[in-house]
TrEMBL record:
GO terms for molecular function: catalytic activity. SUPFAM superfamilies: Nudix. This is Nudix hydrolase domain-containing protein. Residues 91-234 form the Nudix hydrolase domain. It comes from the Bacteria. It comes from Falsochrobactrum ovis. InterPro entries: NUDIX_hydrolase-like_dom_sf, NUDIX_hydrolase_dom.
Length: 237
């Protein structure tokens, strides 16, 4: 993975991420710093919850196959990981099921302020949990469908999923994108999501943002989102 160019889109024909036993060495050697950073984060945003997440000490891509090994860790570890600049950090690997409207627009969303990434603009997505793991293997299609449904009320099963998965890496993060094509307009898709959000007591999202071109994104989105959006609009079917 270290040989891949950052913020470049790579097609992969197979994703094989498995969960392996053992404690994450990164978390073990940074215990004190993780606890102190978590204390500061919770003081700023009391709604944060220290649940289980997964990080990967190793990840490779070879002959179109992406492989990695996850170990269990904590959200507090991930929050420290985000501010840590050491080069030996484990990989943070996550899926992103990208909704595409009939016009070819991408559906992004602004994160609600109470969350860890409040104000940032992403495609609706989330971390792996145990419901996404089958016989020790991570199913990213299940994860994408679950996260998009939870955050937006939209079921990706109603869309046409493309066959390929696309990988973008930057700063020890690996995003696995897959586009889901809907036969409904941008306005209708956004309207359905907004109606769903209006019924939520505390939504994870504060604004739905349709992206009709890569220039619609600004500094509120991370570079890998920019990279994928630019690639999409230059390579749209």
């Amino acid at each position: 993975m270290d040989g891949l160019k950052e913020n470049k889109v790579y097609a992969v024909n197979r994703v094989a991420v498995r969960v392996v036993p053992g404690k994450l060495a990164y978390a073990e050697r940074n215990q004190i710093a993780i606890k102190e950073n978590w204390r500061k984060q919770v003081a700023a945003k009391p709604a944060l919850f220290d649940g289980e997440i997964f990080l990967a000490p190793r990840a490779i891509i070879e002959n179109g196959k992406f492989s990695a090994e996850f170990q269990r860790s904590s959200f507090a570890t991930l929050m420290f990981w985000r501010v840590d600049q050491s080069v030996d950090r484990p990989w943070h690997i996550f899926g992103s099921g990208v909704m595409v409207s009939a016009e070819g627009h991408l559906i992004a969303a602004r994160q609600a302020n109470h969350g860890a990434l409040g104000g940032k603009v992403y495609f609706p997505a989330g971390t792996i949990d145990d419901t996404d793991i089958f016989d020790g293997q991570v199913n990213y299609e299940t994860n994408m469908r679950r996260e998009v449904l939870e955050e937006t009320g939209i079921d990706l099963a109603a869309a046409r999923a493309e066959a390929s998965t696309y990988l973008v890496t930057v700063n020890r993060s690996i995003a696995l994108f897959r586009r889901y094509y809907f036969d409904i307009s941008t306005a209708e898709l956004v309207g359905r999501i907004e109606n769903y959000l209006a019924q939520q007591e505390q939504s994870e999202l504060s604004q739905i943002i349709p992206i009709s071109g890569s220039n619609d994104l600004d500094e509120k989105s991370p570079s890998y989102i920019h990279a994928f959006a630019k690639w999409h609009f230059h390579n749209a079917d």
